[in-house]
Amino acid sequence: MLKRTIEPLVTERLLRYPAVALIGPRQCGKTTLAQALGGHYFDLEQEPDRLRLDLAWDSLAAGKDLVILDEAQSWPDVFARLRGTIDRDRKRMGRFLLLGSVSPSLMVQVSESLAGRLSLVELTPFLLTELQTKAAQQRRWLCGGYPDGGVLSAKQYPRWQLDYVSLLAQRDLPAWGLPSKPHTTERLLRMLAALHGCEWNASQVGSSLGLSYHTVNSYLDYLTGAFLIRRLLPYQTNIKKRLVKSPKIYWRDSGVLHALLNVSDDKSLLSQPWVGASWEGFVIEQAIAMLSAHGIPCDAYYFRTSDQHELDLVLDFGQELWAIEIKLTTEPGTAHMLQLDKTADMIQARRRFLVSQTARSTGDGQRVSCGLPEFLHLLVCSF
Questions:
Q1: Over 80: is that where the pLDDT of 106 sits?
Q2: Which CATH class, in words, describes the domain spanning 7-122?
Q3: Sequence-distant (≥ 6) Cβ neighbours of residue 180 within 8 angstroms
Q4: Is the pLDDT assigned to residue 307 strictly greater than 90?
Q5: Considering the chain, what percentage of its residues have pLDDT values greater than 70?
């Protein structure tokens, strides 16, 4: 099993909270990571496991071993039990690890039953830095990060991703409460793939699907909560220029994006007119996921003015802003950095990064031009 960057964070949270919820998309490795921590495992989507848990609850609650509850939101009755058990001995930490694949359902139960008793930790598919071989690292952008999706075994891509999306649309998303017919969901998912990296226009998408913009927005909320889509909000600041206010949308896993857009290999990917948007989304997701895996609090945005001054990613750490521009090139030029500086000055960003596919890093720590691996290293080492 590959070492997951987030494991120390999960362990640390278990030392400080009675319960921890490890959330993330289906098949990203939550169960594998949880079982590696030891303890008693129950899959609450399975009736036999629910019965086992019911009969053993008192002994498990009195014991010292970790209790792992997979897909906890599928059995809402368990949350009242958790609250009662935790409240009888609030000083005992690290008792329960909940796993969940859909944020909305889980968060309703958490907010109603476990507020103040539980810490949330999000697991993503494999980070670039978690892959141990050069071949796997080179496949990561094309195939995405799902363990079974091709990043570890190239033959799985793109068939695995297409089956994954089909099962989500036909079974999982309806079961989780998405009020959309499967064929409509699949059409929406393919439209979202074509809009990757674009500003969100609910009215336009709704018109194409024969739905109201209110309905389309509610569907997007659900897909965001199910860890499929990232909605990147615009950074707002008090400057004289008019700012773009619509969010941008990105597929969180590049492999699912590429499969939906019928990209079969690296050659095909690089020939696409939207390849720059794909690279941009890949870098953005890796950066945000890396910060999350290390427990570093940060708000992520993009920035654009009406006269086309733009930053692909703005990271707000509270005390300072970082401005990031992303280019699909191995030879970033001086003009790219000068444009980055000009736009970063508008929001008074303290540090500026030009992230490309270059093998060389240049800069003084405050202004840096580098490749993605170096950028991810700098993100973590700065805190």
A1: no
A2: alpha beta
A3: 173, 174, 188, 219
A4: no
A5: 98
The highest-confidence range among 99-113, 163-177, 182-196, by mean pLDDT, is 182-196
Which position has the token pair 């008693």? 40
Name the percent of the chain lying above pLDDT 90: 86
Rounded distance between C-alpha atoms, residue 321 and residue 224, angstroms: 25
Instruction: Please give the structure tokens belonging to residue 236.
Output: 């707002």
Strands (E), the chain: 19-23, 40-43, 67-70, 96-100, 118-122, 198-199, 229-234, 248-251, 299-304, 310-316, 321-326, 351-356, 362-363, 367-371
Contacts of 321 (CB under 8 A, 6+ apart): 314, 315, 347, 348, 349, 350, 351
Q: Which pLDDT value is given to residue 240? A: 66
Indicate the domain borders of the chain.
Answer: 7-122, 127-227+251-272, 273-383
CATH class of 273-383: alpha beta
111 pLDDT higher than 80: no
Q: What is the pLDDT of residues 53-82, one digit of tens each?
A: 999 999 999 999 999 999 888 888 899 899
Residues comprising the chain, all counted? 383
Per-residue DSSP letter, 129? G
Residue 237: exposed, middle, or buried by beta-carbon count in 10 A (0-12, 13-18, 19+)? middle
Instruction: Find tokens 């309905």 and name the residue.
Output: 215
Q: Give CA 32 to chain center in angstroms.
A: 18
Same CATH fold, 273-383 and 7-122?
Answer: no
Tokens of 184: 């409509």
For range 367-378, the mean pLDDT: 97
Structure tokens at 116: 């103040």
Q: Phi and psi at residue 319, in whole multiples of 5°? A: -85, -20
Cα–Cα distance, 116 to 199 (Å, whole number): 36
d(CA 53, CA 61): 11
